[in-house]
Design goal:
Length: 78
């Protein structure tokens, strides 16, 4: 799951090969911006067949790959 999300961020949002840790802050390190976040959310909803509510779009849920994975796992019940 982590690799799928990282691959999407690198290929579709950043557009160039970069390396970042699973606990790196996506926003403060400039990896994604608000438009990138919108694209990422749309991808996550479609790819993992989940629905992300506006109230769940927080720094606590979307600042790192690890936090995103945790949210998805809660959504799909694993």
């Amino acid at each position: 799951m982590k690799e799928t999300i990282k691959k999407y961020i690198i290929e579709k949002i950043v557009g160039e090969e970069i390396d970042f840790a699973d606990d790196a802050s996506l926003f403060s390190e400039g990896i994604i911006d608000s438009l990138g976040q919108v694209k990422l959310i749309a991808f996550l909803e479609k790819h993992f067949n989940i629905s992300i509510n506006p109230g769940e779009i927080t720094v606590e849920n979307f600042d790192t790959i690890n936090q995103i994975v945790k949210l998805i796992e809660q959504k799909i019940g694993t």
